[in-house]
Each structure stands twice: as structure tokens, then as C-alpha cells.
């Protein structure tokens, strides 16, 4: 306990050379950016999941897919998939294509919207993965560089007074980079694994929703095709009445 209380990171930082200090500041900046990215990504996924749940509830209570106001759900992946599907239906009906061709257009539009939403789910996770992989190596680079400089200083000392007392401060200062790199990478790896798992679960939910949406659109189109079309009676020629002049 006394040894831990006597450790002063500022003292180790002051004994580091310029390269070690630069690596230390780079690692601190990476830590700040990594924490900001993890918190922002968590909040983004939570907002998206909440909006998806509200949209799914409103869609289940709607009598038809076309009746739900998609514009009321900005940034909602479920709403974006539905809007893309409705747009495909409108374009297919404008071109007067068959029902089978309409569903092909709908499935293609839903697949494109799904891929776009999947990119949003996995955005910024690549950076966290890079921090997890690169921070320990960057810290190791600072440590190896500091140890090399410390031994080089002893090798160039011609007084013969080199001892462990002169070597220890330089090695301890060099190890500061490794400790900082691990402090950056350890929280980032836990955050990365949690966010990656959460995004994969939400992508599976999105895939299930896209399949259910396509099935519902197909059933509604099939039901509308079976509905009898209202026919307007055509006007007929007036029956000849007594006394009417013959044509």
C-alpha cells in the first residue's frame, strides 16, 4: 500500500523523453475519443430501439401498411424500411406491372434499406476495434523506445557509475506508456464487445421485421386483388313509350 501511494505518474512522465511524452498524449486522446464513441453509440442504439418498438406497435394496430404515418418516426430503421417498401409499391403501380413484379420490387427495396440500416448499426465500431488492437501496441512502442534510450544512456556513460539506481527511473518512465495503453484498451474492448453484440441483436430484429413487413404487404395486395370491383351501371337506351315518335 505504501508503495502504491508513493508512485507518482507525473514523475514518470517528466522523466520520459519527447517520443514517450508524445505517445502518452496520443493514448490519452484515443482514450477520450473511445469513451465518447462508446457513450454516443450506446445512446444511438437505445434511441433506435425505442423508435423501432413504437413503430412496430403502431404498425400492428394499423389496418393497412399504407395507413401508418411513416414521417412521424425520423431516424427509425423500421420506418425507413416501410417507407422504402411503400415507395417501391407506388413506382410499380405507376408502371402498371403485375403483382408478382410488384413484390420483387418491394423485396429489392427492403433489402437495400436493410443494408443501409445495418451500416448505421455497425458505424463507429470499426474505430473502437482499431483502438482495442492498436492501443497496447502503441504503448509497447513507447516502452521499448524508452528502455532503449535508457540503456543507450548507460552505454554512453564513461564514468563507470552506471547502476540500477540510474537505470530504474528511465525504465519506469518507459513502462508508463504500456500502462496507459492497457488502460485505454481494456475499457474499449469491453465496450466494443457489448456494442457489437447489441448491434447484432438489433440487426436480427430488423431482419425479422423486414420479412414480416414483406409478408404483410403481399397478403394485403392479395386481399385487395380479391375484392370485387364496384361496377357502375351503364346508361341504357330509353324504352319506347306509346306515342313517342319512331326513330
Describe the fold and architecture:
The chain has 247 residues and is mostly helical. It is built from seven helices and no strands. The chain is rod-shaped and about 95 Å long.
Write the layout of secondary structure elements.
Blueprint: H1 2-6, H2 9-15, H3 18-61, H4 77-94, H5 99-122, H6 125-155, H7 164-226
Helix pairs in contact: 2-7, 3-6, 3-7, 4-5, 4-7, 5-7, 6-7
- Report the major sheet: none
- In the predicted model, the low-confidence regions spanning at least 5 consecutive residues are 1-5, 236-241
Amino- and carboxy-terminal Cα gap: 121 Å
Radius of gyration: 34 Å
Descriptive terms for the model:
7 helices, mainly alpha, 247 residues
Short description:
By secondary structure, the chain is an all-alpha fold.
